[in-house]
User: What shape does this take?
Amino acid sequence: MIMAGTFLEFLSINVWHILMAMGNLLILVLLLKKFLFKPINNILQKRAEEVDKIYSDADTALEKANADKALYEEKLTRAKDEADTLIKTASEHAKAKSNEIISQARAEADRRRKSADEDIELAKKKAVNDIKDSISDMVISLAEQVVEKEIDANAHSALIDDAIDNLGDSV
Assistant: This one.
């Protein structure tokens, strides 16, 4: 029976042991909390703050990039509009200059044509006046010859034929 008593003593519950074990567990938990959990929580909190800061910086950079992109697109649109305006203005200026040059060329051609027509008209008048002068000289010459000679019908006819032949040579 001795064994049964030791066995029972081994199985018996000692309240002081339980309290001591609980006290040891409490002290262990408090020590772990102070020296292990708080530093780990501080490290985790710092990491979380760093991650939040990284996300915040990334969001800020994304917003700035989007703003820069919008500004770039606006400037690009403005530049295209200005280029279109410049091209349109240059094209209109070139058309106006072309029309002006064509107008000046036509005016010059009309002036030259008019001048040439006037020169032709003057040359015709001069030729007509020269012919008139030549005919009047021939008529005067013929009249002098007629007055100097006594005219019979045959001589008169020959003299007129001779004057007509001379008229054809001088014209």
Summary: The chain has three helices and no strands. The two ends are 182 Å apart (CA to CA). The helical segments are 2-11, 15-148, 153-170.
